[in-house]
Write a structure and sequence with these properties.
two-stranded antiparallel ribbon; disordered C terminus; 219 residues; 2 strands
């Protein structure tokens, strides 16, 4: 559960925080370093969406645990695939945490949203450019709850008992409910628009390839 205020986990020094950030950025660049038909356009589109996702976390930070990024990761994974979906999740987490707060919990948040994006790439959430809203709503509920529980592990310390950790999870259930409610709202209002935008990008990527193949045949 990502609380708007409270203890997220152990506080790291600047060297440790830099190491985590460098590790996550390295993963994102590794995933994106793959030839594409239109790399400049892809970078522009993905960067714009990533910045918008990070800004949404920052703007909604006063509302406890409202995380539209969860549904965005599902849609990104379902539309663009696991590679770019995971890269999006990692970069959006890093950018927003530069403003919100950065530390040990960033690793759990980035890996959690990366797992959500990967799940989105494997689930039948978007078929023939159409959002399967029922499946997306179920996925949004499950992803929100599992993400919160995963990030909760960032507060685990050697001196914490299982009972104390279980009590922490129970106390966080209202915040989990807020995350689920926000994800359902984002699925209904945001997912169709984002899906259409991303499918236009996918169609643009494939168009030059088809043209090139046609030229080879006619030549």
């Amino acid at each position: 559960m990502v609380l708007a205020s409270g203890v997220h986990g152990p506080v790291l020094g600047p060297v440790e925080s830099l190491a985590i950030d460098a590790f996550l950025v390295g993963i994102a660049f590794f995933l994106l370093c793959r030839p594409t038909v239109s790399p400049r356009r892809e970078i522009l589109v993905l960067t714009s969406i990533t910045i918008a996702a990070a800004a949404s976390r920052v703007l909604l930070e006063p509302i406890p645990n409202v995380q539209p990024l969860t549904v965005m990761c599902l849609v990104m994974g379902a539309t663009l695939g696991a590679r770019r979906g995971i890269a999006f999740a990692v970069m959006a987490t890093l950018l927003s945490n530069m403003v919100l707060s950065n530390g040990w919990w960033t690793l759990f948040q980035a890996s959690g949203w990366a797992a959500v994006a990967f799940a989105g790439s494997r689930l039948p959430l978007i078929i023939d450019s159409t959002v399967q809203m029922k499946q997306l709503l179920f996925a949004a509920v499950g992803a929100s709850l599992l993400f919160d529980w995963w990030v909760s592990l960032s507060i685990w310390t050697s001196g914490m008992s299982i009972g104390e950790f279980g009590l922490y999870l129970m106390n966080g259930l209202p915040f989990d409910a807020l995350h689920i409610l926000a994800s359902l709202t984002a699925a209904v209002w945001l997912a169709p628009w984002l899906s259409n935008l991303l499918h236009e990008e996918v169609a643009f990527e494939h168009e030059p390839v088809a043209t090139g193949e046609a030229n080879v045949v006619t030549g």
